[in-house]
Structure formats: C-alpha cells, structure tokens
UniProtKB/TrEMBL annotation:
It comes from Acetivibrio straminisolvens JCM 21531. Coiled coil: none annotated. Residues 26-205 form the Penicillin-binding protein dimerisation domain. Pfam families: PBP_dimer. GO terms for molecular function: penicillin binding. GO terms for biological process: cell wall organization. GO terms for cellular component: plasma membrane. This is Penicillin-binding protein 2. InterPro entries: Beta-lactam/transpept (IPR050515), PBP_dimer (IPR005311), PBP_dimer_sf (IPR036138).
Length: 214
C-alpha cells in the first residue's frame, strides 16, 4: 500500500485518470446571418482543434511527442499556442512584452513556482531559459530552439493545467492535412485529440456582390 500511495502515487493517479470517461465540450454552431435579400453575410465552417489529454508518459516521452506534433504544425503552416512568448522569447532569448517591468517579472517568477532562494539566481533571460529547461525536464539532446518549442507547450500544461477529462488546447483551426497526419500516426501521439469546432466566416463585399450576381 505504501508503494501504491507514496512511491508511485503520481503514476497510478495518471493511470486512473485515463480510465475515466472523457468529458468533451461541444460548441454549437452560431446561426447564419443574411441581409434583407437573403444574401449570406456571415456563415459557419467546420474547423479542427488539437488538444492534449493527460496520460501516463515520462517527461522524455512527452517532450518527444510535443516536438513531433509541432513539426507537423510547422510543416503544414499551422500556428499553435505560444503563451510563453509573452514572457520569454527565443532568437533572441529575452524577456517578453509582459515582463518588461521588475514587478511583472517577479510576479511571473512566482507563478513559475520559483523557490525564494532561486529568485536571485534568475536575473537574466538566459538564466530563466536554463531554469525552465531544467524545470520542464527537457533533455540535453535537444537544441535550444527545440527545447524552447517543447517548453512552450509544457508551460501551458503547468499554467493552465490539464487532465484526462479536461484536455489542453494546443492549436485551433488547423488544416485537414495536419489532422490526417496526426491520425495516421496516432500511435506516436498518445493523449492527442482532434475536436471539431465551428469557425465563423464573414463574407466581404466582393463575395456578397458575387453571390448577388449569381
């Protein structure tokens, strides 16, 4: 019992979460907007969102999976969540736009659960980069650029939180090619989910006139 509750408590907690029924939010599409002549002004189209649910993976396995996922996004020209860049940028490594004051920087460090004794050791952006790389257990085999990409997703995992039943949004409105590649290689992406989310599209004047002409 001691082994179950104390030594391997986190492992068995994650295992148990994967056996729960997943709750998924389904976003209802908004109604179509038309003008007085019945010409569409705003319509809906279906978009795809990529999410990650918590599963029993080691940090190294998680890092490898995240990097593969980002590689697919970049290959297909899809953007993904980069909230870390608001606080720490890469190329150059610098404090982001939300960390330009000392007060903001100190608050952010506390959000990172930085120990009081470590606060004075994190004076430069490079110090913070190395600290986060170690905190997120990003292996030394990765380049700094690869490490930063991995850290962007692990940062959101820490700050926003995620579980087996409440997955983390990683990218939205991705291309069909991205969805196909993830699903074809699903064995490489444990915990990665694809959700269908309605996207609003507003037609410009040219489109409306074109419809009117037809």
């Amino acid at each position: 019992m001691a082994n179950l509750q104390i030594i391997n408590g986190e492992y068995y907690d994650e295992k148990s979460q994967t056996k729960l029924l997943a709750e998924r939010d389904i976003i209802a599409p908004r109604g179509k907007i038309v003008d007085r002549n019945g010409i569409p002004i705003a319509v809906n189209r279906m978009g795809y969102a990529v999410k990650i649910a918590k599963t029993s993976m080691t940090e190294n396995e998680k890092s490898e999976m995240i990097l593969k996922l980002i590689s697919i996004f970049e290959k297909n020209g899809d953007s993904y969540e980069k909230n870390l860049s608001y606080y720490l940028t890469f190329n150059p490594i610098a404090f982001g736009p939300r960390n330009q004051s000392q007060d903001a920087l100190q608050r952010w460090k506390k959000d990172m659960v930085v120990k009081p004794d470590d606060m004075k050791l994190l004076e430069t952006p490079e110090d913070v980069f190395r600290y986060l790389r170690k905190k997120f257990s990003v292996d030394e085999k990765y380049t700094d650029e690869e490490a930063y990409k991995i850290m962007t997703i692990k940062y959101d995992m820490l700050i926003k939180g995620y579980t087996a039943t409440n997955p983390l949004l990683v990218a939205k409105d991705v291309k069909v090619e991205t969805v196909a590649q993830i699903e074809e290689r699903s064995h490489e992406f444990p915990g990665v989910l694809i959700d269908i989310i309605p996207q609003r599209k507003y037609l410009d004047a040219g489109s409306v006139l074109m419809c009117w002409d037809i």
